Amino acid sequence: xxxxxxxxxxxxxxxxxxxxxxxxxxxxxxxxxxxxxxxxxxxxxxxxxxxxxxxxxxxxxxxxxxxxxxxxxxxxxxxxxxxxxxxxxxxxxxxxxxxxxxxxxxxxxxxxxxxxxxxxxxxxxxxxxxxxxxxxxxxxxxxxxxxxxxxxxxxxxxxxxxxxxxxxxxxxxxxxxxxxxxxxxxxxxxxxxxxxxxxxxxxxxxxxxxxxxxxxxxxxxxxxxxxxxxxxxxxxxxxxxxxxxxxxxxxxxxxxxxxxxxxxxxxxxxxxxxxxxxxxxxxxxxxxxxxxxxxxxxxxxxxxxxxxxxxxxxxxxxxxxxxxxxxxxxxxxxxxxxxxxxxxxxxxxxxxxxxxxxxxxxxxxxxxxxxxxxxxxxxxxxxxxxxxxxxxxxxxxxxx
Amino acid sequence: xxxxxxxxxxxxxxxxxxxxxxxxxxxxxxxxxxxxxxxxxxxxxxxxxxxxxxxxxxxxxxxxxxxxxxxxxxxxxxxxxxxxxxxxxxxxxxxxxxxxxxxxxxxxxxxxxxxxxxxxxxxxxxxxxxxxxxxxxxxxxxxxxxxxxxxxxxxxxxxxxxxxxxxxxxxxxxxxxxxxxxxxxxxxxxxxxxxxxxxxxxxxxxxxxxxxxxxxxxxxxxxxxxxxxxxxxxxxxxxxxxxxxxxxxxxxxxxxxxxxxxxxxxxxxxxxxxxxxxxxxxxxxxxxxxxxxxxxxxxxxxxxxxxxxxxxxxxxxxxxxxxxxxxxxxxxxxxxxxxxxxxxxxxxxxxxxxxxxxxxxxxxxxxxxxxxxxxxxxxxxxxxxxxxxxxxxxxxxxxxxxxxxxxxxxxxxxxxxxxxxxxxxxxxxxxxxxxxxxxxxxxxxxxxxxxxxxxxxxxxxxxxxxxxxxxxxxxxxxxxxxxxxxxxxxxxxxxxxxxxxxxxxxxxxxxxxxxxxxxxxxxxxxxxxxxxxxxxxxxxxxxxxxxxxxxxxxxxxxxxxxxxxxx
Lengths: 400, 567
Fold this sequence. Notes:
The structure holds two protein chains of two kinds. By secondary structure, chain A is an alpha/beta fold.
């Protein structure tokens, strides 16, 4: 018995080392093949701050691995999915135009379900071991879709709100108090129209806060009594809309436009997915020094954004090398710097070797940045199927 | 030039430019009928149409499209007519004429953003009022932009299209002998308005019809301006269709394809309707013609014309000023009429990054403009040849097909074209990018050059042949030599059209080709107005440079030819 247990342990240990050794061999193969490849990285190009960061990463990957990275600046991830889909339609199953794409949520689910992804690859990437899969479960489940190593975590997102502390004393920290705030300050509150994902997230946050029972939201929408579950949401929005910016007769396209309106003083509260957005915008002069960040008391929706490789990439190895570098402590610490971008890390900083941990400890604290404590609880995204159903119901009510 | 070669020009031109449209339409119609093998949809069915009609907001979006598209196009035509009747020909008009080229080179999106910042409740106009009067301290909750009825969209579209229609009208007006006709009318006691409407407008409209139809088609299917200035709940049909094509639910691409086809049907239907409307319109004019009234007073017309020009001037000058200010702003909040601080940082930062896209924009634009010019001159020269020979089949009549890309909504064929190119294995190459730009550069090249080229007095060429004994030398040295001005202008126009292409560059290039325009559009999806302004100005500066050269080069060329200097 004892012997066999020992034997089992030994085999297990051997298998583990063999597994690691295999992954190391595979990684060596990958870096060898990657050298000289050109990786077309399709990523949203609407922010200079992010474009500069990607440019820096491209240079570092060129130095370190000899991989040439080209940033394709897209306006919408849907365009990239369309490109891959067009290629599949035309039978271009090798050497497609997209090698790596910045993605999450619904688009990931769509690509995964339609076999448009390369397959599992993060298990071969050395830096994946530092990802905080324990305390950041959204690195394993993207809008409840199992990631299954098919996309590499890149950054963390959480729904936060921004306000001008020079104008407002206490910001409203729940959906109910937001309604009161709108009553006292008519025209100064708005949210982007779904299906903009900013708008959809606002709707989901509202529903999570108002729902009596959240369980149905974490299961496929078909299993739920949609009308009953969403009734409090529509009741709330019916009250909010007449009090909103332009009396709810027109909406913004997303968080970028709302940031402009906040700067213009048209609205008093804006929203963002990046908890450090305000700090970075203050640093670049886009927003005034008095802007601050807050979250709702019940917690707010958080998720992870990733990079994925399409099924027909001709430079998949180069793409893996880039994905691995983007997860490295060096790249993640730079990304988390509010003077550079301010996108929160996916890594478990406590687990990192001392010198890598020092990189994070040396980061400046942004003016409008909330501590982990203040950021509060992260609400999980509802099941993916709710997105389409909520967007459609919203459009039927307010955009028909 | 050798006639045998010339015969091939119109055919080649048509073949090269019909292919993308036909391939593209087929590639859109198949998914519209349910055929999309990559998504396991292989049954032909009308289900996508049913899904489209069931999609929330489609009916409303369709109504909005018709109202804003037709409304803005008709408004643009009416204002064009008012300005012409009120001021043409006159000295101030000649000044206006010179301003048209730079106005035409203003990119659509940049103009819409500028107007938005001008008229929004926190915009420049209200900031100036606040600075002077101290009111309002916070921006009022007014619906001056992106209103749900589409008024702001109609305004922006009309403002963008009036200069184009004026420009096209000015190319045709010299042939109509306006001054002489007005004298004639006047000598018989008819007022300016009556002479214009009865004698000049019908032949002018005849020549403006195609550009006007292009304006209608554009206004019905425009996406970028509608996103910035249009209603949001729901948006116009073109925006809704684009959204369906980008939806994470990939199956929505099938109703999306149906929607793109619906947009094409709506465009064709609208053009047919406008064509049919000409008959009662004509009858009405004839009745007025014979009613004996002379309409000698038309004072309010001048006022209306003056007002239109003033609104246009404020809009264009204002949006340009705003872009310039934002590009050098550091921080700028309501209610400051000027930025709180200035900085050249956004220029210096951007100029580093813009080098590669700039080079690609220049090379693609110049190449497509030159190719289009050669094809169009070939086709026009073939016309001259046909005039002197008795040919049974006149391939020239097929040239109207060239305008097809201007009349078919881009979203109705670009998706299909992309798939065809990938299937042929030629996507993502630079020459295909040039080709896709040519599809749009060519019609504008033809529109710009055909007037002056056809007006060329052949007797110069005959004299040259008799003196030199060489048709080739006569063509190169005399005909082309005398046509430098329109040719330079045409090249500048073609270049400007190529620079402006966004969707073709994106779709055909698979994202691999970054031009100044693709960079500008992707940055415009962000929040930083300062960088957006820098890119918009660069995007605007390139065509402007082209038009400037088009004025300077002929002037230099004709410095020793006094008779050619003032034309």
